[in-house]
Amino acid sequence: WGCSPENVDTLVNTVFNEMKILQSEGPGQVNLQKAQETMIRDIESNVLKNSYWRAVLKNAYYYDERIYSADELKDLIKNIKLEDIHQAAKNYFDLENYLKVILMPEETGE
Q: Which CA distances in Å does 27 have to 11, 33, 35, 63, 91?
């Protein structure tokens, strides 16, 4: 995400607070539904682009994975449950060991 340098700490703290909420409470139904709707819209628009299919084919070949149809992907997304996200946050968010990288604007010497 992008922000001005003076807002970095606020943004980082906001992200970590959200991660803590996902670990302790999980996501809300409204947030999950909005995320699912966004992902489904992305699929519907991406399947019309050659660059999407190039990436799908490359990844399928490289990782020896099957290629899912748009309908299969939409079904997978629709079947994500609140508890799935809650458990993933508990399993994968490590608030003690992480890498924080901040890209600062170049100083122009003016």
A: 19, 10, 11, 30, 15
CA-CA distances (angstroms) from residue 78 to 9, 63, 81, 82?
A: 35, 24, 8, 11
pTM (global) more than 0.85: no
Return all residues near 36 (Cβ < 8 A) that are at least 6 apart.
77, 78, 80
* HSE, side-chain direction, 13 A CA sphere, residue 73: 16
CA distance 28 to 22: 9
What does the block give as tokens for 70?
């748009």
Q: What mean pLDDT, rounded, does the chain reach?
A: 94
